[in-house]
């Protein structure tokens, strides 16, 4: 039977959802309005559109988490595998629909990798032998065999994202719903996910993906659904999407349709020498410098003898595979973790971790741990409301990052992409000479990525030294002036 002749695995008919005023935490905009779409068995349908447009809400309604866990008002008809979703108990719906969340850690129930992947299978009462077989297959499918013995909190963000995907797919649900599943993945991880989605399709399973990074879906996606302001504006076939010109794609805020490799940029010292006018001329003093940094976790060396230097005015891309230790290095530089050995100098002065925290700003990719106040305005100002110059600068930054209409909103009510832009705004409005951003464009649409990239370039032009941990070739190509490769930093001289 062809896909066209098959009954939908997911069907929305005029579905609307509005978050309750007391349940909007982790919401996306005001919700969705009169959404109609269908996903057939063996089909991959992609939700795309600007950050905060309602894509995440559609995935939550599809898997039943809204309104079960995100309270609100739901109207319209939802059918799963031909059954009215209202008649399907939530536990059974969870077995029918596997879910990969935007924040992978938010869906973990176990402390270790193997236990987490097996959890869903065990929860649905499968025999032990089947649980082991399904978990082992999922772990291998997502390239996790080498880290299966590690606790989850010792994994990188990208590795956690692979675990989340493996745990959702292990019970072999008929439908898989993914919300920004490649946000923290390197290219290898994205390609692994692409191969798995292709297998799901071949097995007749339905896949609904909310995504901005579209390149990995080439040759896999069957249809694209463009969402803006909570409504579906249009649906297009894969061929129609491929025919979009770059100008039209940019106007829609869509990412590149093909992988954009990280550019082959010079090291910060090489870039500085060129800026100084001669490769032999001694460059001026770096604002951030390390010598012999070594860090271990769980009795194993994560990286050793890391030496680097970044100068004012530079935007340095810190790159490396998932699990290479980039985020740990960033936290060490910011004084949030202690290395086993080595020194960090800021503006020529060797500083202990406590002192570094006053000179280095670190923006985590875990935005759930980033914010402490009750509004966007309060978050960027942190009580500094008596400084008129700062207030005006804050208005400019918030406007530039598209957050001004949300200035009174609670940070918890923002979409994932909006939270990332708020994190960037907080860094730009700090007074620290070194800014470190950890995956600031993960889950951002094309327009938002451009806005963030230009904001980083402007900050560097004002004399800041900026380090950006990223797998995003589009971001690096637009704003990074040099590159720090983790594989080149280890065992380096001082």
Please characterize this protein's 3D structure.
- Helices cover 33% and strands 23% of the residues.
- With 494 residues, the protein is α/β, with parallel strands linked by helices.
- It has a 6-stranded mixed β-sheet, with helices on both faces. Strands 11, 12, 13, 15 and 16 form a 5-stranded antiparallel β-sheet that branches. It has a 5-stranded parallel β-sheet with strand order 17-18-19-14-20, sandwiched between helices.
- Helix 4 (113-123) packs across helix 5 and helix 16 (446-461) runs parallel beside helix 17.
- The longest helix has 16 residues, at 187-202.
- It is globular.
- It starts with 9 loop residues before the first strand and ends in a 5-residue tail after the last helix.
Give a nutshell description of this structure:
With 494 residues, the protein is of the alpha/beta class. It is 33% helix and 23% strand. The chain has helices at 55-63, 65-68, 90-96, 113-123, 128-141, 157-169, 187-202, 238-242, 246-251, 268-275, 326-333, 353-356, 376-381, 388-400, 416-428, 446-461, 473-479, 486-489; strands at residues 10-19, 31-39, 44-48, 72-80, 83-84, 97-100, 175-179, 206-210, 223-228, 231-237, 288-297, 300-306, 309-310, 315-319, 341-346, 349-350, 360-363, 434-438, 465-469, 482-485.
Helix percent band? 25-40%
- Point out poorly predicted stretches: 22-28
Counting structural domains, the number is 2
CATH architecture of the largest domain: 3-Layer(aba) Sandwich
Overall geometric form: globular
Largest sheet: 6 strands, mixed
Strand content: 15-25%
CATH class categorisation of the largest domain: Alpha Beta
Helix tally?
Answer: 18
Rounded radius of gyration (Å): 23 Å
| Main β-sheet, spatial strand arrangement | 6-7-8-3-9-10
N→C terminal distance: 65 Å
What is the mean pLDDT?
90
Count of individual beta strands = 20
What would you give as the CATH superfamily of the largest domain?
P-loop containing nucleotide triphosphate hydrolases
